[in-house]
Amino acid sequence: MYAQLVETGAKKVPTLAEMTPEEQAFQAKIDAGIKIEAKDWMPEGYRKTLVRQISQHAHSEIVGQLPEGNWITRAPSLKRKSILLAKVQDEGGHGLYLYSAAETLGVSREQMVDDLHAGKARYSSIFNYPTLTWADMGAIGWLVDGAAIINQIPLCRCSFGPYARAMVRICKEESFHQRQGYDIMISLMRGTAAQQAMAQDALNRWWWPSLMMFGPSDAESINSAQSAQWGIKLFSNDELRQKMVDQTVPQAEHLGLRIPDPDLKWNEERGHYDFGAIERDEFYSVLKGNGPCNKERLATRVKAHEDGAWFRDALMAHAEKRAARAGKAA
Amino acid sequence: MTTKNLPLWEVFIRSQHGLAHKHVGSLHAADAEMAMNNARDVYTRRNEGVSIWVVPSASIVASSPDDKEPLFDPANSKVYRHPTFFPMPDEVKHI
Ligand SMILES: [Fe+2]
Ligand SMILES: [Fe+2]
Q1: With contact defined as beta carbons under 8 Å apart, do B26 and B9 qualify?
Q2: Nearest one of A13, A34, A249 to A143, comparing CA atoms
Q3: Quick count: other Cβ atoms within 10 Å of Cβ A130?
Q4: What DSSP string describes A19-54?
Q5: Measured in Å, how far apart are chain A's first and last C-alpha atoms?
Q6: Quick check: pTM over 0.90?
Q7: pLDDT tens for residues A71-115?
Q8: Contact yes or no for B25 and A309 at CB 8 A
Q9: CATH code of residue B44
Q10: Chain A residues whose beta carbon lies within 8 Å of the beta carbon of residue B2
Q11: Crossing angle of helices A161-189/A78-103, nearest 10°?
């Protein structure tokens, strides 16, 4: 998802009997639905996994501003431009809430940002695809923010208090993101044949990358089982992906758009849609840095950070000078 | 390159007149003025508040989870601090 393939360090998920008394007490709290707070005792693996998961999530929000930022100056009307600007600004806020949640675990934001810029930390594979037309703004809001909502709503109930509270704030804002995207698609589908074709083309390009956001099947994954035991992963990747397909197909039908999957079919018996498998090779290749835009995205982030360094320095110098002057006066 | 990191601040918002300020999150800022501007931009974009407090995180003194028992357990045995401890006769009203 926004955090894909999070490493837990676990070789095997421990049973209660294999845990130390401290770990047992910790697990009992999680099983009872009592939130873990930053200063509470926690296993080192839980802390490290959360830092990885939350920082990956934060990086995704920040890097995720770039594909849409690409269209702010080219939005087709002032209204659309204001809306897109507000949406992208929200994503910056989401990054901040999440970095703050991770900082409660004793890692600094600078360290997390440095890790991202050094290529040591991941962000979601979805933001490494290019935004070629205005219809991509519709498809991203509808599908990418739609997928984010499916992933994030359960995380509002995750075991770590600061992460859960950040997710509550984020989820309140995401619904606007998804709707503004769907609204763009509605407008395009009411337009000319060329505009309708543009909408279909955007869906064709974003459908599979959106389903890949949920990651590969993790039914057998020890990392996922460990994260489930810790209450920081509440549904499997396949369950969430199924939910995405089931809720999106009727929305596409309403628009009059065709989902680019020959295997897509309603399964009466299961009460769900059957659908094709994601391309695992493409997923891993994009995650490893070989997607169409990986290098450009990271280079843009690094440049923005470095270009702003003199300004951050000046802010600190100004604040220190004023504090020193106030100290002298007192 | 930046040598000093911007300090951390905690943000408290009064959501409506008559309510207390409530912790909503944190942010980084060089000074109080920047913390206030950032808090406004990040935490009140949808009319979430009528008043903002920003406090340097380093100024907050927090109780430790290890002190939970000495701090809070003594209250458990003092049930007489609650009005329900005193049964009142049914015929006595307004008490
Ligand atoms: Fe977001
Ligand atoms: Fe969003």
Answers
A1: yes
A2: A249
A3: 13
A4: S-HHHHHHHHHHHTTPPB-TTS---HHHHHHHHHHH
A5: 53
A6: yes
A7: 999 999 999 999 999 999 999 999 999 999 999 999 999 999 999
A8: no
A9: 3.10.20.520
A10: 309, 312-313, 316
A11: 160
If you measure CA to CA, which chain A residue comes closest to B7? A316
B23 φ, ψ to 5°?
-65, 130
Contact between A322 and B31 using a beta-carbon 8 Å cutoff:
yes
Question: B44 lies in which domain range?
Answer: 3-62
Looking at the structure of chain B, the number of domains it has is 1
Q: Is A249 on the interface with B (CB under 8 A)?
A: no
Indicate whether B89 belongs to any domain: no
Determine, yes or no, domain membership for B92: no
Residue A174 in contact with partner chain B when CB distance is under 8 A: no
Q: pLDDT tens for residues A207-266?
A: 999 999 999 888 888 889 999 999 999 999 999 999 999 999 999 999 999 999 999 999
Hey, are the CB atoms on B42 and A316 less than 8 Å from each other? no
Both tokens of residue A159? 């075991």
Q: Identify which of A50, A9, A64, A246 has the alpha carbon closest to the alpha carbon of residue A155.
A: A50
Which residue does chain B place closest to A104, by CA atoms? Answer: B26
Q: Give which of A107, A7, A150, A122 is closest to A60, Cα–Cα.
A: A122
Nearest-CA distance B15 → chain A (Å): 14
Closest CA to A229 of A6, A50, A14, A35: A14
What are the structure tokens assigned to B48, written together?
């979430």
Say if the Cβ atoms of B28 and A109 lie within 8 Å. Answer: yes
Nearest 5°: CA angle at A34, between A243 and A149?
A: 25
Q: Is residue B7 part of a domain?
A: yes
Could you tell me if the ipTM is greater than 0.90?
no
CB pairs under 8 A between A and B: 54
* Structure tokens belonging to residue A170: 């984020």
Q: How do residues B8-51 score in pLDDT, each as one tens digit?
A: 999 999 998 889 999 999 999 999 999 999 999 999 999 899 99
A18 touches chain B (CB under 8 A): no
| Contact between residue B27 and residue B35 where contact means Cβ atoms under 8 Å apart | yes
Q: Which residues surround ligand 1, an ion (CB under 5 A)?
A: A 61, 91, 94
* Residue A286, token pair as written in the block: 């994009």
In a domain, residue B45? The reply is yes
- Which residues from chain B sit within 8 angstroms of residue A86, using beta carbons? 45
Q: How far from the centroid of its chain's Cα atoms is residue A245's Cα?
A: 18
